[in-house]
């Protein structure tokens, strides 16, 4: 009985990791679609959001069935509960990739007011945080999870830099307001993706230690 339960938990963990890989690719494709103004790639990201949403629903159902059948306690309950929380954060990341792809479609016929440098850099940082948070989940690595939490400060700082730069563009040339506003939204979406990676890392710490980090 216990062996079957352990297999179900491992299968659940693998499905969460697979969802994480799909979300990571969606973020990569969304930012690339914006930088290249590739509308077809953006449409692929938009269409793929349904897959991510369905995965979240399926994983939630599996967690509920596990809770109902096994009535887990202590660490086992934390494993299932953490799975639910991580899945929610991944789904929200997918939503932000969807939002970025929508910006690509909106700006499709406009030359970019500047080459995108810091936004792709923010994306790489957020993607690294996501990959590291999932690795921390796989290995139950608290040190790596804490490293992800600290990296969020760097993304926040870069977002503020992007915001100030785009605000300057708007002040110097009101014709850029529409596009610059859209790019600020993209920066905000990436900043939120980093926040969700931080959440995942905090759930990993909770899973291993049973202690919740206090938000500062």
TrEMBL record:
Keywords: Cytoplasm, Phosphate transport, Transport. Its main location: cytoplasm. Residues 16-103, 119-204 form the PhoU domain. Pfam families: PhoU. It comes from the Bacteria. InterPro entries: PhoU, PhoU-like_sf, PhoU_dom. It is found in: Cytoplasm. Homodimer. Belongs to the PhoU family. Plays a role in the regulation of phosphate uptake. This is Phosphate-specific transport system accessory protein PhoU. It comes from Anaeroselena agilis.
């Amino acid at each position: 009985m216990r062996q079957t339960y352990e297999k179900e938990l491992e299968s659940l963990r693998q499905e969460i990791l697979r969802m994480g890989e799909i979300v990571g690719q969606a973020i990569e494709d969304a930012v690339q679609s914006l930088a290249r103004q590739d509308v077809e790639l953006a449409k692929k990201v938009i269409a793929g959001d349904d897959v991510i949403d369905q995965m979240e629903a399926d994983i939630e159902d599996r967690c509920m069935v596990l809770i109902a059948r096994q009535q887990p306690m202590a660490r086992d309950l934390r494993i299932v509960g953490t799975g639910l929380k991580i899945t929610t954060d991944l789904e929200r990341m997918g939503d932000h990739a969807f939002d970025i792809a929508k910006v690509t479609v909106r700006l499709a016929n406009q030359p970019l007011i500047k080459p995108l440098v810091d936004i792709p850099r923010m994306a790489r940082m957020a993607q690294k945080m996501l990959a590291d948070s999932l690795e921390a989940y796989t290995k139950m690595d608290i040190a790596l999870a804490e490293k992800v939490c600290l990296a969020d400060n760097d993304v926040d700082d870069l977002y503020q830099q992007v915001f100030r730069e785009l605000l300057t563009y708007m002040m110097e040339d009101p014709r850029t307001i529409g596009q610059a506003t859209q790019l600020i939204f993209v920066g905000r979406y990436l900043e939120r993706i980093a926040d969700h990676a931080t959440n995942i890392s905090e759930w990993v710490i909770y899973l291993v230690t049973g202690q919740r980090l206090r938000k500062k």
